[in-house]
Amino acid sequence: MCEFCTEHGEGKKWYLQMKNYAAELLHAELSPAQVAAAQATSRLEWHNRFWESFTIPAIRGMAEPEEETPPGETSEAQPSEEEMLSRRKAVHFGQVLPIEDVEQVIEMVDSITRMPCGCRFMTTGMADKRYCFGLGMDRYGLLGRFPDAASSLEVLDKNEAKKIFRQFDEEGLMHSIWTGVTPYVIGICNCDRDCGAYKGYVEMRGAPSFFRAEYICQVDWDLCTGCKSCMSQCQFGAQFYSSALAKVYIDPARCFGCGVCRAACPQDAIVLSPRQENARARNIWLRDMS
Question: Comparing C-alpha atoms, which of 213, 174, 183, 214 is closest to residue 4?
Answer without folding.
Answer: 183
